[in-house]
Design a protein that fits this description.
4-stranded antiparallel β-sheet, 11 strands
Length: 122
């Protein structure tokens, strides 16, 4: 059974940093591209970033490029999202999602974690 468990969310001031983690189990993590998706209050889902199964290729939404860094540790079956220079508009629930494929040429959103809340507020 696939399990994706996010952690690391919380309340942070504008300009601050957080690192989200996603612990994966129930599938071959090292063969699955991974994605972070977020949902702000009252809004739809927004793709944030993806990483291929080996960790060598990453992509970012324009809204987070240069501020967020996605990474993974295949030995620990864990996905990360380092978020720096946080803005009010980054407030959202952040979800970890696995893909059925390794590469980023075709990414599916196969299984979702329960999400972790990030609130940027002064």
């Amino acid at each position: 059974q696939v399990q994706l468990v996010e952690s690391g969310g919380g309340l942070v001031q504008p300009g601050g940093s957080l690192r989200l983690s996603c612990a994966a189990s129930g599938f071959t993590f090292s063969m699955s591209a991974m994605t972070w998706v977020r949902q702000a209050p009252g809004k739809g889902l927004e793709w944030v970033s993806s990483i291929d199964c080996g960790g060598g290729t990453t992509t970012y939404a324009d809204s987070v490029k240069g501020r967020f860094t996605i990474s993974r540790d295949n030995a620990k079956n864990t996905l990360y999202l380092q978020m720096n220079s946080l803005k009010y508009e980054d407030t959202a629930v952040y979800y970890c999602v696995n893909s059925d494929y390794c590469g980023l040429g075709y990414v599916t959103f196969a299984n979702w974690g329960q999400g972790t809340q990030v609130t940027v507020s002064s």
